[in-house]
Specification:
- With about 120 residues, this protein is an alpha+beta fold.
- Helix content is about 35%, strand content about 15%.
- The protein contains 3 helices and 4 strands; from the N terminus they run ββααββα.
- It has helices spanning about 30-50, 60-70, 115-120; strands at about 10-15, 25-30, 75, 110.
- The strands form 2 sheets. Strands 1-2 form a two-stranded antiparallel ribbon. The protein has a two-stranded antiparallel ribbon with strand order 3-4.
- A hairpin with an 8-residue loop joins strand 1 (about 10-15) and strand 2.
- Helix 1 (about 30-50) runs parallel beside helix 3 (about 115-120).
- The two termini are about 25 Å apart.
- About 10% of the residues are buried.
Length: about 120
């Protein structure tokens, strides 16, 4: 992964009768199906701020993410502990990856820090 983003216990609403019309119910969900749109929302908010300032939208992010991590490490919170040995259904016997200092295969560059990223982009 390039970045980490919280993907646990996201509150959703859904129709109780499988239609687009309520009565609606609430539930919590987990996983990349939460984290990916959450990160996309953060990028949308950054693009909104850039547009308000008369700047161009971000576009392809990967080069920018690694540039920020190198030039302004405060733009990410490095996750240095934990692993991906377990899912909600089972755990492996040490098969997977551990978080570590810097980029790692569990959390990438870490979690994005919105205010610091915005400051980097505006300056």
């Amino acid at each position: 992964p390039d970045v980490a983003f919280g993907g646990h216990n996201w509150l959703i609403t859904y129709s109780k009768n499988s239609s687009e019309i309520c009565p609606c119910a609430f539930a919590t969900v987990d996983g990349t199906s939460c984290a990916s749109p959450g990160f996309s929302g953060l990028v949308s908010l950054l693009n909104q701020e850039l547009a308000t300032a008369g700047r161009s939208p971000l576009g392809f992010l990967n080069p920018l993410l690694y540039e920020m991590a190198h030039n302004a490490p405060q733009t990410f919170q490095d996750i240095t502990s934990g692993d991906n040995y377990c899912t909600e259904y089972l755990c492996s016997d040490g098969i997977g990856y551990r978080a570590s200092v810097g980029w790692d295969a569990v959390t990438g560059l870490g979690t994005p820090h919105f205010a610091n990223i915005l400051d980097y982009l505006m300056n």
